[in-house]
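A.,

Following up on our hallway conversation. Structure tokens first:
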């Protein structure tokens, strides 16, 4: 559908933003839904963030995704913040409702979607989360809402302990934090049902690096890597070789995009179309 004077515009702001999968994923979703909408990427400097938000209002964009480095700073320019985003402390989606800009975080819903596609039930079970950055916050709050018991392990243990304390305070779930070493991982994984990697270890070009020794992985574990480039990280390869169930980071990416699509359009997201586009962009299309 060619843009016209009536076309509704959404987009993504970040820096860098040119490698984002979201324009291809969302434009395909708009097309599949048969709506006259378009999604574009805007590279926005930190110093121009406030001007960019003013631009959203002035130009009447319907919505934005927000990525690195603006996910936290953006919060001070919005009119309201959804409670999930407030707890996570970051916004990745903005909905412009007649000039009222509301911030959401759809990464937690994306992770919940990924777990559902993997058929993993975490209620009442221990889940080991590797990393304590922004990605970990969305994952850990999502796990707490699902009734799991998250244990966060991080290279810098103070960050893991701080995140565990936040989650325990906000949700009442008994989260714990520890240091990321082969021996702590080995011990914690024994009683866990799922391991989730939220660190950047294994991301292209360091495709042979893994945050978790292969000996820790077993058949009765599920393993989710939120890194999706490469599609099969060293961790996912090791997990597959150990007979563990694997959940690709593509599912979290698609799930967060699907939730954003639904917030903007009010329509059900064409998840299969969105997944196919992402896999094609990553060079694994059918
Ligand atoms: P994001 O918001 O994408 O999660 P981040 O806040 O920079 O990004 O967090 C990156 C995570 O990857 C952190 O948990 C980081 O550990 P530290 O808190 O100790 O920095 C982790 N990480 C990055 N490189 C790592 C490495 N080589 N080994 C172990 N952990 C690493």
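Then the amino acids I'd put at each of the 286 positions:
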């Amino acid at each position: 559908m060619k843009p016209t004077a009536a076309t509704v515009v959404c987009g993504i702001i970040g820096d860098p933003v040119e490698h984002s999968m979201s324009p291809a994923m969302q434009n395909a979703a708009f097309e599949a839904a048969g709506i006259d909408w378009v999604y574009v990427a805007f590279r926005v400097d930190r110093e121009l963030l406030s001007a960019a938000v003013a631009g959203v209002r002035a130009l009447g964009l319907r919505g934005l995704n927000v990525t690195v480095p603006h996910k936290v700073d953006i919060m001070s320019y919005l009119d309201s913040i959804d409670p999930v985003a407030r707890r996570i402390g970051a916004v990745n989606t903005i909905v412009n409702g007649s000039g009222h800009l509301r911030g959401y975080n759809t990464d937690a819903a994306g992770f919940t979607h990924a777990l559902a596609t993997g058929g993993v039930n975490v209620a009442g079970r221990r889940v080991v989360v590797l990393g304590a950055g922004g990605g970990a916050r969305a994952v850990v709050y999502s796990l707490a809402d699902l009734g799991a018991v998250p244990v966060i392990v991080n290279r810098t243990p103070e960050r893991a302990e701080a995140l565990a304390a936040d989650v325990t305070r906000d949700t009442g779930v008994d989260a714990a934090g520890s240091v990321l070493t082969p021996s702590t991982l080995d011990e914690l994984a024994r009683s866990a049902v799922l391991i989730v990697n939220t660190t950047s270890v294994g991301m292209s070009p360091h495709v042979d690096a893994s945050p978790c020794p292969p000996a820790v992985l077993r058949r009765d574990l599920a393993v989710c890597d939120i890194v999706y480039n490469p599609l099969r990280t060293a961790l996912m390869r090791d997990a597959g070789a150990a007979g563990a169930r694997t959940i690709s980071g593509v599912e979290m990416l698609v799930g967060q995009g699907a939730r954003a699509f639904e917030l903007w359009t009010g329509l059900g997201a064409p998840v299969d179309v969105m997944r196919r586009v992402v896999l094609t962009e990553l060079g694994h299309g059918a």
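DSSP finds ten helices and twelve strands in the chain. Curious whether your intuition agrees with the design.

B.
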